[in-house]
Amino acid sequence: MALEIRQNLRLTQQLIMTQKLQQAIRLLQLNRMELLAEIHQALETNPVLEEQLTEERAPASPEEEAWEAARPQASAEAETEASPSTPAADEASSPLDDWDWEKYLQDQEFSPRLEEYEARELPSYENLNAQKTTLKSHLMWQLSLAGLDPEGQMLGTLIVGNLDADGYLRATVEEIAQEAGVPARRVEEILRVVQGFDPPGVAARDLKECLHLQLAALNLDHPLVAAIIENHLTNLGNRNYHAMARDLKASLEEVVQAAEIIARLDPKPGRRFDAEDPAYITPDVYVYKVGEEYVCVLNEDGLPKLRVNSFYLESLRHPEKLSDSAKSYIQKHLDNALWFIRSIHQRQKTLQRVAESIVRFQRDFLDHGLSHLRPLTLRQVAEDVQMHESTISRVTTGKYMHTPQGVLDMKYFFNSGINLGVGDQIASESVKEKIRQLVQSENPENPLSDQEIADLLRKEDVIIARRTVAKYRGMLGVLPSSKRRRPGLRGKNRATPPS
């Protein structure tokens, strides 16, 4: 077979992702705060764009117009009276004219008025953020008040510096002693001082020591509690109360009471100081019920209204006065500005249509709550609004909706369905809520197993397998039945499905 070069003509169609199209797609998946930052960046980089001011000056009242008209005459009269060229000013000389200013300035030492400078330069107190108290700063403050000598202060600083976020000491006494060049017993002495600080249990080397320190801080001398902490933490985690009762020669009720005391202790004493800052959510869509209908309103509070600068538009009306480079510069930024404004309008319109479609599908949920949440897919909404599924996915990503049932992620409304015995479907979130209610109403002495939960749901025509119950239970953070058992609690019967 011979190889040769040929020229063929072929006509094809393909989608080219231009920069403008990429920008429009990216604007779709931005939430409100990200969109606000994008608009501010566009205002800074594109001179053709400007913010449209919605507030205009109200017309002046007749009294204000009369005052404005009288101001020039009043100002002229005041200047005439205060003018130093008037005869009255020439006749009456000021007593300060004979003052020796040069001698006065030489005798005085002037310093700048810091009060006025600081009041003018420093930001207002309302704009200052309070410094967050961390575990390290809290312990260092107590260490400074402990009255230790310089060596003790240095060792205490080393101990505090080797604590993790949970408050546990992650360096051995020997390592700290070697680094500081002091005997290990001296480090032990300072470690006992730090372990007496707040929060109780801090600077412990393991869980047992942490719990013992908290018992000592509470002045609680309970031999059974101390024995469980020392020898039966594994059984306590597995809620194996019978094994602890047999080994400790105690009754089951006493073991349960001791376990309740231990449950009130904090295994991670430092976590309340170094907790992450809460993330505040600003809804992108508000859903209000007006009469019998739900109305979707986009949250445009604080979003600038954009328009094209009239100066550049006027310049393009007289192109003969502009150079070629100036015309090209203005035309380029004008096209980008128009496309940016059009993309934002299209994003808002698409978000409005998708929100209204979700409200139509989930009206029962808005009226009655989680038990009436319908199974919903992206395809259903896409067919309803005549858009592609990828567009629906982008416009609902990272956005929140304020509804009568709370502030919810827009992705929350899209969930799979579980078959019902009558041929209909129920949302997976509703099934999770039913499982949570069954676990809350169960008998703590004999908790429901996954199979028993599946059987109870089957009686409500919810066809679900045991492994699916285990999956949903794990997503809810519910422990297995073996670890939910709490013996010694009387007066409760086997749970029944809620009506």
Describe this entry's structure for a reader.
This protein is an alpha+beta fold. Among the domains are: 135-226 and 257-263, Arc Repressor Mutant, subunit A, CATH 1.10.10.1330; 285-413, no CATH class; 417-484, Orthogonal Bundle (Arc Repressor Mutant, subunit A), CATH 1.10.10. Helix content is 51%, strand content 7%. The protein is built from 24 helices and 8 strands. The chain has helices at residues 19-28, 32-45, 62-82, 87-91, 101-107, 114-121, 135-144, 150-161, 173-180, 184-195, 207-217, 223-231, 233-237, 241-248, 252-263, 310-316, 324-361, 363-368, 378-385, 389-396, 428-440, 450-459, 466-475, 481-484, and strands at residues 49-52, 285-290, 293-298, 305-308, 400-403, 406-409, 417-419, 425-427. It has a 4-stranded mixed β-sheet with strand order 3-2-5-6. It has a two-stranded antiparallel sheet with strand order 1-4. Helix 7 (135-144) packs antiparallel against helix 8, helix 8 packs across helix 10 (184-195) and helix 22 (450-459) packs across helix 23. The chain is extended, with a radius of gyration of 37 Å. It starts with 18 loop residues before the first helix and ends in a 15-residue tail after the last helix.
- Output the structural class: alpha+beta
Question: How many helices in DSSP terms?
Answer: 24
Give, in spatial order, the strands making up the sheet with the most strands. 3-2-5-6
**Poorly predicted spans:** 56-96, 108-119, 489-499
Question: Using DSSP, what is the number of strands?
Answer: 8
Distance between the termini: 80 Å
